[in-house]
């Protein structure tokens, strides 16, 4: 299922790098798909627990906190996100180009150690 993105929020501070996608939802109108890298605590984590965590509001499954970003492909108005347990398809055709550029820059920061593959076409 492809989720239509209404807007993107970006947050960057000393502790976290966060990309939030507000996606359309038939039941609740909007829900959030979050890509979160917690830099502040990552040094305390085991190696396999490090990286960008992926969560979709309303998703509930075992080991949800271990759902880590593996691959992201951005091509035109489409984004394909592959994580440990799920895959997400996004349509960003309604999102401002400046928001998309900001998202790409923050993704690069989240991937400072090459924990996931990324392609922008």
Strand order of the largest sheet: 4-3-2-1-7-6-5-8
| Helical run tally | 2
* Helix and strand composition category: mainly beta
Number of strands: 8
SS strand fraction: over 45%
What report would you give on this structure?
With 121 residues, the protein is mostly beta strands. It contains 2 helices and 8 strands. An 8-stranded mixed sheet has the order 4-3-2-1-7-6-5-8. Strand 5 (69-75) and strand 6 (78-83) form a beta hairpin. The radius of gyration is 14 Å and the shape is globular. It starts with a strand and ends with a strand.
What's the arrangement of secondary structure elements?
Layout lengths: L1 E11 L3 E10 L3 E10 H4 L10 E4 L12 E7 L2 E6 L3 E5 L5 H14 L6 E4 L1
Parallel strand pairs: 1-7, 5-8
Antiparallel strand pairs: 1-2, 2-3, 3-4, 5-6, 6-7
Keyword list:
121 residues; mainly beta; globular; 2 helices; 15% helix
At a glance:
It contains 2 helices and 8 strands; from the N terminus they run βββαββββαβ.
């Amino acid at each position: 299922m492809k989720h239509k993105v209404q807007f993107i929020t970006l947050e960057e501070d000393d502790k976290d790098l966060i990309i939030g996608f507000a996606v359309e939802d038939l039941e609740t109108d909007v829900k959030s798909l979050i890509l979160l890298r917690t830099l502040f605590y990552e040094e305390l984590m085991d190696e396999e627990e490090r990286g960008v965590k992926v969560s979709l509001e309303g998703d509930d499954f075992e080991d949800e906190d271990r759902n880590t970003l593996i691959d992201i492909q951005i091509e035109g108005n489409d984004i394909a996100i592959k994580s440990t347990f799920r895959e997400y398809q996004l349509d960003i055709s309604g999102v401002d180009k400046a928001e998309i550029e900001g998202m790409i820059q923050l993704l690069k920061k989240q991937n400072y150690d090459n924990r996931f593959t990324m392609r922008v076409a």
